[in-house]
Every structure is written in structure tokens, then in C-alpha cells.
Write a structure and sequence with these properties.
The longest helix is centred in the middle third of the chain and has 10 residues. The chain has one domain: Ubiquitin-like (UB roll). 16% of the residues lie in helices and 23% in strands. It is built from 2 helices and 5 strands; from the N terminus they run E-E-H-E-H-E-E. It is of the alpha+beta class. The structure holds FE2/S2 (inorganic) cluster (FES). The site of FE2/S2 (inorganic) cluster (FES) has 14 residues, from loops.
């Protein structure tokens, strides 16, 4: 089974089994991590912000201007590895992905 290795805001580490093919946001939220996802994945709230490590970051589709604008509007630290997890569809090649939930804005 595919896995996600995620660190929550409080530093707690989670090993998550991926059973479906939804977005990263939905998988992380279902696993109980501190992902609010206030807009339910409409790319409008940035409360699903995560930092994604290489080499997985490079496997993702490039960030859209809309995603970047939402991140910039959030007011929190934006890094080169920042992504909105609702904009990342689960792909088989993401098995083993390592990520950290971004601090609250
Ligand atoms: S859930 Fe709102 S931007 Fe991702």
C-alpha cells in the first residue's frame, strides 16, 4: 500500500496508508492532521498549505498562478517547497512522499 510520511504542525509524525486516489488535502484531513481546508479544496483559503520534500516536489504538476496567488494572500511563510495540498492529486509515483503541514498564518 502507498504511504505518506507527514509531520503535523505540532511535530507529530504520521505514517499514512493511502487507500484512495483523491487529493493530498483529503487524505491528510481524513488522517486527522491539522488541515482545516476551509474552502473544501476550491483553492481559496490556503488552510491546506504544506511543505513537500524532494524528490516528490519535482514530480508534481507545476503550481498555477491561481494557487500561488492564494498562497500569497494567506500571509504565512511561503517557501520554494510550498504547495496547497488540495491542488495535488494523488499519483502512484507519490508513494513515500514526505511533507510537513505549514504553520498557521
Ligand atoms: S482547501 Fe482551501 S485552498 Fe486548499
Amino acid at each position: 500500500m502507498a504511504k505518506i510520511f507527514a509531520t503535523d504542525r505540532d511535530g507529530t509524525k504520521h505514517e499514512i496508508d493511502v487507500r484512495d486516489r483523491s487529493t493530498l488535502m483529503e487524505i491528510l484531513k481524513q488522517a486527522g492532521l491539522s488541515i482545516e481546508a476551509l474552502c473544501s479544496g476550491c483553492c481559496q483559503c490556503a488552510t491546506c498549505h504544506v511543505f513537500i520534500e524532494e524528490p516528490w516536489l519535482s514530480k508534481l504538476k507545476p503550481q498555477t498562478d491561481f494557487e500561488l496567488a492564494t498562497l500569497e494572500g494567506e500571509g504565512s511563510e511561503i517557501r520554494s517547497d510550498s504547495r496547497l495540498s488540495c491542488q495535488v492529486k494523488w499519483l502512484a509515483e507519490l508513494d513515500g512522499i514526505v511533507l510537513t503541514v505549514a504553520p498557521e498564518a
